[in-house]
Write a structure and sequence with these properties.
The protein has a two-stranded antiparallel ribbon. A hairpin with a 4-residue loop joins β1 and β2. The protein has one domain. The mean pLDDT is about 85. It is an alpha+beta fold. About 35% of the residues lie in helices and about 20% in strands. The radius of gyration is 14 Å and the shape is globular.
Amino acid sequence: SLTVNAVDDTRLTANLIPHTLAATNLKRLTPGDRVNLEIDLIARYVERMFSYRG
């Protein structure tokens, strides 16, 4: 599990559960490393739906 806590123009902060750290190479990242993130399309649609509601 990866939970994004904050996003700005060029950075994000996230929490990772121990299993995710053990099962991926994310534990090797250091602050400032570049990563490629894919966004869940359903999450994007939900975000847009709520942004239209104001």
